[in-house]
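In this section we walk through a basic example: taking a raw amino acid sequence and producing a predicted 3D structure, encoded as discrete structure tokens. The instruction is simple. Fold the sequence below.
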Amino acid sequence: MRFHFIALLLQILAAFAAVPNAHAQTAWPNKPVRLILQSPPGGSSDLIARVLQGHLQEAFGQPWIIESRPGSFGIPAGMVVVKSGSDGYTFGLFGSSVSANVVTQKNMPYDALRDFTPVALVLKTPNIIVVSSASPYNSIQDLVAAAKAKPGSLSFGTPGPGLTQHFTGEWLKHRAGIDMLHVPYKGAGPAMVAVMGGEIPIAVTVAGSATQLVQSGRLRALAVSGSERLPLLPNVPTVAEQGYPDFSITEWFGLVGAAGIPAEVTRRLNAEINRALKTPAIAERFRNLGYQPGSQSPEEFRAFIESEVTTIRTIVREAKIHTD
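The resulting token sequence is shown next.
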């Protein structure tokens, strides 16, 4: 009799002990959530984060605090997320450098494929190859012809080494069999100023940084790097359309957390981000900046990152790209 009483008492205690754990899981988030960025305020990820911030705060009833940790290929920002633990209160809104660093950085302090929990692919956008409005080049064919006529005479600017813009220029060089000098700048803004001012003849930048300049006539777009034309610039062909089949390089932004974040948290956050991207006001704002919504599950986002790593590894190897 005493044995049965003790067993029953233990069962009751175990049931009560389980209640707080279940409540803790369903109550997420019950305090502010940090959103870590790789770029300084005013950049693309900052703009994206601030558009999403209001929706996430309203959906989850907690503040989402944006923190910028720029520098060194986004590695410091990544370290903040990796070291934050798996409680689901720190996430990173990171760009394509997540997959690029796996290939290009020799001494990474973390493994992006192992130490991150992919949550949601937020946005994708192609890069744009641009020249000044006074340039003699009107197409990729014009650019390639000029480069072949005077090898080594052309240069292309980008927001920095080891980015998809850098890979776009180097992959074009490799596919077209031409020689151009890469000139890295500290951000898209300085690269755009340089090409408009005639400091460099060509620049490669993310679509959002150049679309308005192209539409206003201050820059001329020769091509977009993605597999499809950009809706905002429907008359600008892809690189693939201009003689280089399967040429496709995309810039992207996605949300990641530290390894081990509970699946329930990951799925709730993924669903809310995808819902935000379908909200007419948010969707239109991103569309007007040249972005396309990601709308993937966490599993699909992980597979996407892995495929991006494979693509970049091929480009870096075949084009013999050096980022140091």
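Looking at the output, two observations stand out. Strands lie at 33-37, 64-68, 90-95, 116-132, 154-158, 180-184, 202-206, 219-224, 250-258, 292-293. Residues 5-10, 12-25 have pLDDT under 50 and may be disordered. In the next section we compare this with other chains.
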